[in-house]
Write a structure and sequence with these properties.
Layout: E1 4-7, H1 16-30, H2 39-47, E2 51-56, E3 59-69, E4 74-82, H3 91-106, E5 111-116, H4 119-128, E6 131-133, H5 142-146, H6 154-159, E7 168-172, H7 174-178, H8 188-202
Parallel strand pairs: 4-5
Antiparallel strand pairs: 1-2, 2-3, 3-4, 5-7, 6-7
Helix pairs in contact: 1-2, 3-4
């Protein structure tokens, strides 16, 4: 695998539709909720130098972008996707690590967070120093939560007043890292059980 990961530029505009289609198809296959993206939005993130793309000889392999909230106080990585032909090769972790390190340079004081239903993403986040947190520790910016409107589980988030959903919130606080506080140890069984409990509670008819 000869994949390179770079900050996306305007020359990568033409991958936008394929990126959006791959994200949506992946969500449908997993049966999980995910906020939909548009090519225009991908272009916007590229213009802001807040998108990362993985390529092999000009072929799309993976993607992720950065979002900032509350004047850079919080940063999130969204749209992390790997093309089906490049999965199970560790590329998702490489992309996530790349965008994580880039975010710290671009927003050195920001808390980096994410919400996800995927145990694989939780494992990657944990390895980077994230810890699970309640939604109350994440940004309260309405525009962030408005981005969940296209997710199939948005009604659950609304019913829980943006305090809980099927997703798990995870946070990396650079101040905690500097103070060398005890790091969270990822436990797939515990988080898998938590996910099952949420599904049982929230998806009741």
């Amino acid at each position: 695998m000869n994949v390179i990961i770079v900050i996306a530029q305007k020359e990568h505009y033409h991958y936008a539709q394929e990126i959006c289609d791959t994200i949506e198809t992946s969500a449908l296959q997993r049966g999980t909720g995910i906020a939909k993206r548009t090519p225009e939005y991908i272009h916007k993130k590229i213009d802001l130098q807040e998108a990362v793309i993985a390529l092999e000889n000009g072929k799309f392999a993976g993607f992720c972008y950065i979002e900032s909230w509350q004047h850079g106080k919080f940063v999130a990585h969204s749209g992390l996707i790997v093309h089906p032909g490049y999965r199970h090769l560790g590329l998702a972790k490489k992309i996530k690590t790349f965008v994580f390190e880039y975010s710290q340079k671009k927003y050195p004081e920001a808390k980096i967070f994410g919400i996800t239903t995927g145990l694989a993403v939780m494992k990657i986040n944990s390895d980077l120093g994230y810890r699970p947190v309640p939604f109350s520790e994440l940004t309260d910016d309405p525009s962030f939560w408005a981005g969940c409107k296209t997710c199939t589980n948005f009604d659950i988030l609304q019913r829980k007043e943006n305090k809980m959903c099927l997703c798990t919130g995870m946070l990396y606080d650079p101040k905690e890292k500097k103070n060398q506080e005890q790091e969270y140890t990822f436990n797939k069984k515990v988080l898998g059980r938590l996910k099952s409990i949420k599904q049982a509670l929230f998806l009741k008819k």
